[in-house]
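Q: I have 451 residues here and want to know how they pack in 3D. Can you give me a structure?
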Amino acid sequence: MSRRQGRYTAIIALTAVAAFATGCSSQASDQSTSESGHVDWWGWTPTQSEVAQGYIDAFNEEYPDIEVVFRQVPINGYDAALRPALTSPEGPDVFDIAPGGGIGSLSTFGSSAEDLTPVAEEWLGDDWESKIAANGPAGFTTEDGTLSALSVGSTFAGTLWINQDLFDEYGLSAPTTLDAWIEACAVFRENGHGCLTHGAGQVAFNQDVLQSISDSVEPGWWSAASRGEREWTDDVFVQTLETWKSLFDEQIIDDGALGIQQYPDANNVFLSQQSPMVMMGTWYMPNATTALATASISAAGVADATPFRMIPIDFPDVAGEGNPSVLFGDANYGLAVNANSDAKEAARTFVGWLTTQADGQQVVADAINDIPSLTGVEPAWDNLDLVDAELQQPILQDLIASTATADEPRLSLISAEMQEAIGVASTTVAEGRATPEEAAATMQEAVDALG
């Protein structure tokens, strides 16, 4: 069954997560795509290997003669592994790339990728940009106009994920204010649990907490400062750092946070039910399904991998200003084709199918790992086996719907140097080695030095 024939069939999206793919593909010439070949795909995400394999299995329903092998590289080792691999004959044909200055950043790896504008035009037509989320081209286009990657989908942060079973066990409601958060944490700790597990050793996740706090103080300030429109010495950032420090002082954030990573450490603490809260975003939605929850809990080292009910909640109004919780996000990751690959045609076929076609994007939607890049594609909820559909489905539907109006970026405005400076500010304040005012001044000095 080929793309030229224009026929599609129902596919199984994930292991034990059944969903039917819909829609039809655009016609495409054979100039830059292929019906056969071998593609090595490297990425730090999807973090659940079952999700990546689900994408590949669905792709092979239509392209059985293109073998795709996913190699998941740990987040903290991705850049170091990818740099030499891109110049090696043993390196990837397709690789993950991200906007902004974090892991796998466009600024670091964009020059190693082929321009995928012809691929987008081939699969979607000359008006391709009108058919996909704008944050894709915005996040993956280099200064010279090269479209280095095509977005698989978007992710958004600004939420906490909680263990609803533990909250119910102790008769607690999701905290909506700083005082309520402190009180809930006290109850959990009295009963032998942690509270908010957080990997403060992984800077991008400190950034998520800081951006949520600053949005509680003044919505939109963080994005304005990231664009250079506000000073980092502003009172908003000083107050943000003061509140960040209070999360440690008031025992909201678990002890030892500065010595662990969000992945795998904090993630495993939450999945093993040692702590009832973790700062994660929309990319955590797969853990609401029975299959992925079971696999993730088992991977966290839990012998009895019985799924529990986890849901996202709004970040509490820690500033007490009455400002609503804000989501912020951008393209989660794009797929780039290695300019040195000897399997470019097969690589382009896989990338084009997954990122631009209705059937490929339906698989992405049904994995609920990313918000699809192609407009108009939504999860087939009736076919998703959620741990508790009555509780979780309306919450997840509301979360996905709210991303449509989210207009604050998460990573795309932050360079690697800025992210390093945010890391210094957050960790020095948390450790008590700098006051919020001193850390804010150091942050501004670092930004000024960038020119």
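Q: Anything worth noting?
A: Residues 416-431 form the longest helix (16 residues). The longest strand covers residues 328-337.
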